[in-house]
């Protein structure tokens, strides 16, 4: 049984008196572009020169700055999936090591995996790490819609690559455990290392409700933790959000594996389909795969709306559009 998570939904906008990170500072980007245009050789011609390490380094630096937000989402999601799925692998492949506390280990493992992922990405991209969080931020927090596709692509790619690294590092143990026969269901099934599958007695309808509620509670708590007019303290936000995921897993997550995130579930699921598990990863348990891919979007929006309607400071409109960076 796998687990999942989600991410700091607050989109960090510049406010007067606060320093910009150079990668998100429009003035920095404008100055950088002006330097490119006025440099010897002029604009695009200068960047077409590839004969020298200095020009290559300058081009790399420019691209890194321009795409810093997306790189942070990619690497943050990669850290989340690599660490979280590795916890699942340890529980599955080494049951004696995990012993009776395997589910507790899973819950805390995913919580701390999210905490580390948020420390990696939160100050750069806002640490969404979840398509549902990104869409909800665009709907309710003024996050630029133009960035949504790039964020979601980065998150899904990070989840896919993270699953790949887990498969590579545990490959020998997986092969020893299942004898080289990749199974989704059965005593030697290992697909649950990478994606979530429901408990046998859970219907698809119940699973959809569980995933929706889990994600709603998660986003509701994320908005509370990151609300500067509530109990400000962004420095401890990654740890607090990690504990939110841990307690959700302990409370009701065992029924579905508390995915709450398409990048945590669908991306690794696609990876498993490509490395020998086949189409059963999508058809198993009455085609359960669509549930953790779709339900989090409903839950995230519901959680955000409930917080804004009942808790958010009355002087702030729930859908207030802040300055784009």
UniProtKB/TrEMBL annotation:
One of its GO terms (cellular component) is plasma membrane. The chain crosses the membrane at residues 70-88, 100-120, 150-170, 202-223, 235-253, 288-310. CDD domains: MIP (cd00333). InterPro entries: Aquaporin-like, MIP, MIP/Aquaporin, MIP_CS. Its main location: membrane. It comes from Tieghemiomyces parasiticus. The keyword Zinc does not apply. Residues 1-24 are annotated as: Disordered. This is Glycerol channel. It is a multi-pass membrane protein. SUPFAM superfamilies: Aquaporin-like. Belongs to the MIP/aquaporin (TC 1.A.8) family. It comes from the Eukaryota. One of its GO terms (molecular function) is water channel activity.
